[in-house]
Amino acid sequence: MKVYYIGLSVSTHDPALAIVDQDGTILFAEATERHLQYKRAPNCEPDNERLPSLLKEYCDPDAEFVAAINWRKFSVRFSRLLCQLGITSATAIFNSSDTDVRFNTPYSLRTKMINAFAASMYDRLGVGFTYAMKLGFPRSRYSIRHFPHHLCHAALASYTSPFDEASCMIVDGAGDFGSFAYYRYREGKIEPVAEHKGFASLGRYYADMTWLCGFNPDKGEEWKVMGYAPYGSLDSRCYELLKSIFTFRRSRIHGLSNKTYQEILRKLQHWLDSGTLDTANLAHTAQQVFSEILIEAVRNFYQLCPSQNLAMAGGCLLNSSAAGMIEENTPFQKLYVPSAPADDGTALGAALLAYHENHPGKAPGKRFGNPYLGSKIPRVKMEQVIRIAAIPNLEHFPGTIHTETARLLSEGKLVGWIQGKAEFGPRSLGNRSILADPRPEGMKDTINARVKFREEFRPFAPSILHEFGQEYFENYQESPYMERTLKFKNEVQNKVPAVVHVNGTGRLQTVKAEYNEKFHALIRSFHGLTGIPLLLNTSFNVMGKPIIHSLEDALSVFYTSGLDVLVVGDYMIRK
Ligand SMILES: [Fe+2]
């Protein structure tokens, strides 16, 4: 009988669902926020009412199903107990409009009740599986397995990496115990090396810095601190204070007691309120301390578990500025970070763990370079909309859509570009992207004013043909998932000002035909017209919303924003 592994991230933030088949092939992986169009989908079930249709689409209904959960059973039960007792958890923060909860203000009764209710989903499968059973998938053919949270991160980082052997390091906000976990990956097996138990958490530290800078980490606004940091400078008093939060003893990282840590946060808040600390300087200093601690932790890990290769995951690896510094500043020679290093990725990690548990020692197969694992817009849907909606200015360019689009981009048009399956992870990598010409100085402001409506200090990313990486970036490293930020060479910065951040860097995506043939062809066409081998690439969404999911979402953004062109497959709509 066939077996499918249904990975579920049931974390309170970034729930997600993944499907792996009996051959270990990844059939589907997607964060719940996309389907619901609800940013980060806090407290939502990953196996919601959509699951039966996904099972019908991807699985044989007569198969067996293994549900793989991304937390230990103990953690799930313990978390529920804590929530029912009204003791703090991240869930409460999501459900409270009272921003003071971040510094341990007692929660309201309402918050506690919502918290307990939300947490109760942890130790059962959600409505999706209930519906599935009613629709003819008998309960007797399901089994449930729980896996350690950081092992799920490690499984994604290891099994999707290009490495046969690697050291694997997880740096997270929290796990079943601590927030750092170390593994060794070889011959298809992941062995634990060490797990830190204690208060040291780079994820928690950065979330608190995000709050202090006036942004909301529960909405994933850590990126804003990273984008804002280059506008400030190092504040030495703040630096000393932040550096005191983490210490290293015998290759292990240690944090302060919660009480002392809270005192530091209050002191920083006081400095901000009294005007003796500038917010941009705090962002800059906090980012620098984050990078220094991360690099020191990686160097220590090398002593413990040396290898040429390093696979990393955990929410902290979304910090592309710090990730871009690792290869240059540590003994590891190659770094791999998956496209979904945060908790959405653990759905796929859990599914892969369940698969490899049933197939011990089996080689993971070729999974590197394909982050395109989510939903696609069916052709029949496009044809239906064309027929019913009578869309004006619609054209069909089978086989030549990339040349037509490149021409319009070179004329300064803003293009919504949809191809194939959606990316798994928070970044648009050429299948759900808004694209523009990187040459005009004012293009960044144009996109912000006409489409994205977001803060002007946030940079836009370049997607560059891999073969031109050395020409444009110092110490060029491949970055297929926009996982690292590198410095543009001085001599090219004025060629592409719309994608050069104020400190001369760019969070690049390196594009190869083998990763994404159509996107590669588009950038090549643009290069042929302009001599520039890169495009400005930003996610196809508006501020505060997830990346678009359906054709209706795309049309809605297109007709309510300043986008000039919408491309879906080989179809093009122009305003
Ligand atoms: Fe995590």
How is the secondary structure organized here?
Blueprint: E1 3-9, E2 16-20, E3 26-31, H1 32-36, H2 51-58, E4 64-69, H3 73-84, H4 90-94, H5 109-119, H6 127-134, E5 142-146, H7 149-159, E6 165-171, E7 180-186, E8 189-195, H8 202-212, H9 222-228, H10 236-243, E9 246-249, E10 252-255, H11 258-273, H12 279-304, E11 309-313, H13 320-329, E12 334-336, H14 343-358, E13 372-376, H15 379-389, E14 394-396, H16 401-410, E15 415-418, E16 421-423, E17 432-436, H17 443-452, E18 461-465, H18 469-472, E19 484-487, E20 505-511, H19 517-530, E21 534-539, H20 551-559, E22 565-568, E23 571-574
Parallel strand pairs: 1-4, 4-5, 6-11, 11-12, 15-22, 18-20
Antiparallel strand pairs: 1-2, 2-3, 6-7, 7-8, 9-10, 13-16, 14-23, 15-17, 17-21, 18-21, 19-20, 22-23
Helix pairs in contact: 3-5, 7-14, 8-12, 10-12, 12-13, 16-19
The structure holds fe (ii) ion.
Fe (ii) ion binds next to helix 7.
